[in-house]
Fold these 2 entries.
Entry 1:
Amino acid sequence: MTVYMLCLVLFSIGLYCVLRKRNIIKIIIGICIMGYAVNLFFILIGYVKDGRSPIYAHDQAITKMVDPLPQVVVLTVIVLGLSITLLLISIAIRLYEKYGTFDITRINKLKG
Amino acid sequence: MAILPYLIAIPLTAAFLTPLFAKRMKAAADVIACAATFFMMAVSLAVAALVLQGRAPSYNVGNWMPPFGIQLCADALSAFMLVTVNLVGFLIAVYSVGYIKSYTDKWKYYTLLMVMMAGVNGLLITTDLFNLYVFLEIASIAVYALVAFGTEPTSLEASFKYAVMSAVASSFVLLGIALLYGATSTLNMNDMARVIAASGGTKLLYFVGMLFIMGFGLKAAAVPFHAWLPDTYSSSPATIPAASSGILIKTLGIYVIARIFFNIFGMTSAVSSIIITLAVLSMLVGALLAFGQTNIRRLFGYSSISQVGYIFLGLGIGTPLGIVGALLHLFNHSVAKSALFLNSGIAENSEQTNDLKRMSGIIAKNPVNGYSMMAGALSICGVPPLGGFWSKLIIIFACIQANRPVLAFIAVAVSILTLAYYFRALTPVLFGRRPDETATRGGAKRSMAMAVAVAILAVIVISGGFLLMPNAGNALLNNAAAVLVKGSFCVNPGVVR
């Protein structure tokens, strides 16, 4: 149970980073941390202590299998997270070219 | 015959072919995009016809049987959404032929648009909750890039804000999916609904429900989560707000919320009251904030928030009549708001401004543009013969029928507010006359494709009420509502085609 709670703490740290930081690179890092926390949580759901990989063989009795589905899911989420991070960083680079700053409070042409 | 994979395969093929050919031949991108969206529309109509005949198509990806494999399946609700979305998508592609000329690298635009359509179509037909998340992310990522397409400082800023907020929302959604998988140990939505119904629901479901409301509510731009919408709409190419308002908000937000809360969790009075609260907040705040706007796109954006409130109101009431009203309003709002945004694009090109105070006399200058914009605005306001009137009327009747007179009163009041701000903002734009300024801004490039697209949209907007006629879409609408009311989807889960 402690592990799951620590996962949610990590998630909250990421959320805090997104909400409170002014530097847009730090905001992007915050989004990454949130992604890692969720991925870790997903992996932990399928984790079995001292479990083995779920490969079927005739001569082995299958006990304590790790659930393989969360691992497959997380692999996909990592790829999605990578593409979002990539896009955000490329937008951040263009923003720096246009505004000359990484400070989110000074990137404020849109209001209303 | 497996018909469903074509809905995902066609736009992805188009997205692949566009960069291949369009770098050499400039016209290839237009042709590929229009042909692909046209075929998607044809396929979605075929899916709707199959569903109405009681032969709902389904497809098991990789021939893995559900609940282990991913199953694509279209029921009446999916079919209704597919028809709406692909109709709007086709008209946006036709309009883009004329509109996107003023930007460089139009093949990149079409590629992103096709990827977005693939994500949206996939989201509508999948029955696997994680697969739904993947398609949602595909559509979202394509839209972040599309918002930044102009590479103006403001569009980059809007894109960054939207991407950050939306990525946080996606994290909430994924956390919810992880918790739900932990509780039910399945990702198939049919199976999940069965497990939850059997276990009678736990307290964890409330937490997961809140995560989903936050995540998908942001995608739907319901009021506490609406901050991205006006910025995004006012600083991207005019087709993007049209696509966002007509396609993305409806599928990524409303469709998924309806699917999850009606079909997986089962509608309870607690959920219903949360959705109704969101709805009332969206309707009132959207309508009140729309009054102060001077930017034409921001006005339409706030109006979009307000109208999404009506759709949520119909869904939140949860009676069959309310859901029929919500779905009809979803269709009417999709076409009317797309018409408004596409027309605002034409008007901005000819007037060289997006300030409402500096636009005037559009009907006199360009009748197709002006009358089409007027049709869209009147439909959103709910003026009698047009589509929007019938859907608002049904939602208000549903409120009265469900013994909620206060909600009915709010719906009527917001409708009057809507009429007031549209009347105030658009009357000078459509009918006003400032001859001294019009002479200086003569450089309007008229485009046939743009005119055709907005004219078709105007015709659909005006005839939106015909969906209620027997034998003309009424069956599809009622079946779609029945899917939500009965809480069961995918009629033949085991059939392999």
Entry 2:
Amino acid sequence: MKVVAFDLWSDYGHFRRFFTTSSPLTYSFPPPTAVRGIVGAILGKGRDEYLLATSGLAIGVRVLTAVKRVRWGQNFIFTKGTSGQFDPTLLAQRKGNAQGMVRTQVKYEYLRAPRFRLYVGGNSALLEELEALLREHRTHYTVSMGLSELLADFSYVGTYGATALPPGTYELVSVFPVEILDPERGLENVLRSGVKLAKERAPVYLAPDRTPLLYQDVVLEMGGQPVRVTVSEKVYRLDNGDVVYLWPPVSTLIPASR
Amino acid sequence: MSTLQNRHEILFLYDVSWANPNGDPMDENKPRIDEETGVNIVTDVRLKRTVRDALMELGYEVFLREERGEDGSRRTKEDIMIYYESDPRKVLEQCIDIRLFGGTFALKGDDQNAFSLTGPVQFKFGRSLHRVKVELIKGTSIMPSAADKRQGTFTEVYVVPYSFIVFYGIANEKAAAATQLTEEDLEAMFKALWVGHKAGTDVITRSKFGHEPRLLVDIVYKPGTLTHMGELDKLVAFRSEKNDEAIRDISDGMLDLSGLVEKMAAYKDKIEKVRLRMDGRLRLVPDVNAALEVPVEPFTWSKEI
């Protein structure tokens, strides 16, 4: 399989955790669903097309710098009126209640100076197109780190051949789902001083109508270091020696009838 | 009118003296500071608010507008309710801010209920080019009270003595098709950016007084190149002999654009032209007009202001 790798960075990032509403918390990394969106933006696939367009691609994510977070309050428009409808206006009478609240303060959590390496695998023509665009720093839509205002920059890293590896003990550079770990000896070799593992439950696949199809506990090293783990499912070795976990294309896991 | 055909990359710098560029409402309205670096942060929504208010003063229809008066009932906007709730295309036709920055709204009789558009123009959070100091100013204020009673109270406001802020943004031609954004709209936004920071009603409240636009750069790419340089805000620097926290005025240093000029030389084949507006008190190195290898033009509104 061919894998295209590129780096993505910005001043701030926000990938909202699915269970937070009014106090938005962020994942420490872009979940595969967000990576599809980013790839879609580069390829010029709109909001309604990218999920389908990228469904045949395998996705991997590597954390390149230690995960840091900041929180601050933001003034937002209170979007609920007495009509029960969503109405983002500051005109009090439009809310049906002149005394009603027009603003609300929300404490937002952001990633600070995040930097990731994203791996996109597959054999489709889409991948060639992606590589060509990345090489020349071209993009159809503006690329952001989760939210539209968090403009991100990106650079092409390389295109590699990827060989599937059998179950075994490997130094993984990317994030991975907990379920690929060997149930007995998965984390046996990982523990040494300085390694800080975190587990975050993230959506992995979305249906074209954005219904989540699968959530997984994803493991990452908070300092961005590789971790030595024993896996019972396949991982990939790239030509440059890096071992990464790639989420398989949507179609291989989710039946088309769903 | 056709929609935007070129990608634009925008760099906007302004400074603030003895005012609060952007308070955090959940932190005593203190100016936002990156605790790690001491750099002052301004959110993109603050900038967009200024643009919207300036656009309104310039006579444009704006969807997200500030309410005025005690209960906001001064404006007779029954008509607007009818326009907006009947057809979102009308909103796009009439409201320049939605064409620029996008929006999400309710649609009556539609099960989906949320109609949402990503704005073609996006700004990153702004940040100061140097570490800033935050000062707490204390004072007294008089409150109205019963006759023959003197009633006073103490007030506290946080300000920054000086902050030279850079904003970086992109206008995307592909997203412009979805919101029907035109060249004229974008030109109006540039004008609003400049006049909004110079004289907008919004920035002459006490907490915002003392804003001055210093430099506006619009890099226009050739149609179809699909590229932009990215992170222009990282390519400019403010060089001063003073300590960061001791900077008090634009004349305390020089704006170094050499990083930008260098990067633009590498992209010169893809750039159609550059438009510049500069404040007379800003000192630039190098001399941009001489150093840039692409055509430099003034904005169409340059003479009016």
